[in-house]
Amino acid sequence: MIQLQSITKKFGDYTAVDQVNLSVEQGEICGLIGANGAGKTTLIRMMCGLLLPDGGEGRVLGFDIRHQQKAIRQQIGYMSQKFSLYPDLTVEENLRFYAALYGIHQGLEKRIASQIEAFRLEEVRQERVGRLPGGWLQRVAFASAQLHSPPLLFLDEPTSGVDPVTRRAFWEQLYRLADEGTTILVTTHVMDEAERCDHITMMNQGEVVAEGAVNQLKKEFARDEHTPLATLDELFIQLTGKGDHDGG
Ligand SMILES: Nc1ncnc2c1ncn2[C@@H]1O[C@H](COP(=O)(O)OP(=O)(O)OP(=O)(O)O)[C@@H](O)[C@H]1O
């Protein structure tokens, strides 16, 4: 679903993403982990067809990330860090806006109704989005990002500013979607969320510093062969030298 080789992005003299390789298979939940400024959003934006790389090659859903950006944008779901919702529109109007953007015409009413039900948005359906607290915004943004049932979802820190109950419900939905075959790439700097992923790619200052299944990495970076690391926190601190990774 995703294949990147040596993807690089510079902003002036600063290398935000440095020769990153990444491979994600269908139905996987892949976690992109790193402190603030590690390069996660920049990498996601290149995979989503929103930003051109300066170097390297990549394919997303079989499309070239340099030359087929529009095709990628039409087929994927992207939930950006800022949630990209219109504060003056109601929940339902936001969903309708995204439906139009994704070109959903047939079965529109049914699809909107099913998203409202699946994300338990009935009680805020006619509320303006700008008046809703964070947990609701996250649900509306997530419902919008997958209105068109995309086979591949990019979620950029989807649970930041969200309470633990909503976070747990959110992850249950991710598992359900992955079970149904959706591929998910999710960024986080919360290590207990990283532990829930099938695979993780850890970034630091634009580079990939660790990559693999969580248990495999805990063994690989263990201090001795008999005692794997207890948590990903230890790995994160070891590889990035950063202890304060939750909220930055
Ligand atoms: N458009 C831009 N122009 C200049 N510098 C940029 C631009 N976008 C990102 N950067 C820089 O590139 C680096 C990586 O940023 P990026 O947003 O990709 O990191 P991140 O891992 O997603 O962090 P965060 O969790 O804070 O979003 C940062 O130093 C950032 O300041």
Topology:
Blueprint: E1 2-11, E2 14-24, E3 29-33, H1 40-47, E4 55-60, E5 63-64, H2 69-75, E6 76-79, H3 91-101, H4 108-118, H5 134-145, E7 152-156, H6 164-179, E8 183-188, H7 191-194, E9 199-204, E10 207-213, H8 214-220, H9 232-240
Parallel strand pairs: 3-8, 3-9, 6-7, 7-8
Antiparallel strand pairs: 1-2, 1-4, 4-5, 9-10
This protein binds adenosine-5'-triphosphate.
How would you explain this protein's 3D organization?
- The chain has 248 residues and is α/β, with parallel strands linked by helices.
- It has 9 helices and 10 strands.
- The chain has a single domain (2-240), classed as 3-Layer(aba) Sandwich (Rossmann fold), CATH 3.40.50.
- Helix 3 (91-101) runs parallel beside helix 5 (134-145).
- The protein is globular.
- Bound molecules: adenosine-5'-triphosphate.
- It comes from Marininema mesophilum.
- InterPro entries: AAA+_ATPase, ABC_transporter-like_ATP-bd, P-loop_NTPase.
- Keywords: ATP-binding, Nucleotide-binding.
- Residues 2-230 form the ABC transporter domain.
